[in-house]
Design brief:
By secondary structure, this protein is of the alpha/beta class. The chain has two domains: about 70 residues, 60s Ribosomal Protein L30, Chain: A, CATH 3.30.1330; about 160 residues, 3-Layer(aba) Sandwich (Alpha/beta knot). The chain contains nine helices and eleven strands.
Length: about 240
């Protein structure tokens, strides 16, 4: 499978794409650029909470050889779900839903591998932050073996918002972290549950750890201190599958 994000360039073209409701993954704007059209684009970006980086013109020139006018954007290969809507739909139609929350994962290949495993393990929805996480780009979709098209993925402004919403809907939230004495195998995962996986280098953020219902770790019997996040995620998800089988 070959797939890449659709790239658009030029300020007016990006404005029209946003106004047309296209799923903009990220906008790269030339640092220090100031004109009425750029101001219009900036207003739209803020209104729609679009992930944006202000970069030197050299970065834009590397992204495209076209006349970019100081603006390059990428369109996501999937359409994201509204988080609250998809959560309510799943809870109302599924006896024991399984959610997966990714707390600012940084590596696109890990992201893709996790999506693939999640789809195989019967995860009902993946929730990611709107900003600061690995993008769902062509590499991630390819690594997912197409699973990204088969599982709902929703974005949230803040991971805490997603957790509070799930908890208010009767879903138990479990964070994968080594900062606990409890192992995954000490927990009951037969009811509605959401698993939280953290960033590769720092794990689940401290603020998130404070509000989850349970923290759990995998027993490590070797000399290496941690597992790859996609491998750890697979172990967590398939423990849910095992307990529910």
């Amino acid at each position: 499978m070959t797939l890449s994000l659709t790239q658009i360039f030029g300020t007016r073209a990006i404005i029209e794409a946003i106004e047309a409701g296209k799923e903009i993954d990220k906008v790269f704007l030339q640092r220090g650029l100031a004109n009425p059209l750029t101001s219009e684009l900036n207003t739209l970006i803020k209104k729609n909470n679009i992930n944006t980086s202000y970069v030197p013109v050299e970065k834009l020139n590397r992204l495209t050889s076209k006349n970019h006018q100081g603006a390059v954007a990428t369109i996501s290969p999937i359409v994201y779900n509204d988080m609250e809507t998809v959560i309510e739909k799943i809870i109302s139609t599924t006896d024991t839903p399984l959610f997966l929350i990714l707390d600012h994962l940084s590596d696109v290949r890990n992201f893709g591998a996790i999506i693939r495993t999640a789809e195989c393990a019967g995860v009902d929805c993946i929730i990611i932050p709107k900003k600061g996480g690995a993008p769902l780009n062509g590499v991630a979709v390819k690594t997912s073996a197409g699973a990204a098209f088969n599982i709902p993925i929703a974005k949230t402004d803040h991971i805490k918002d997603a957790i509070y919403h799930l908890q208010g809907s009767g879903v138990k939230v479990v964070a994968a972290t080594e900062k606990t004495e409890d192992t995954l195998y000490d927990l009951s995962l037969k009811e509605a549950v959401a698993i939280v996986m953290g960033r590769e280098d720092s794990g689940v953020s401290p603020g998130v750890l404070k509000i989850v219902d349970h923290k759990a770790k995998l027993p490590l019997l070797g000399s290496i201190a941690s597992l790859n996040v996609s491998v750890a995620c697979g172990a967590f998800l398939y423990e849910v599958v095992r307990q529910r089988s």
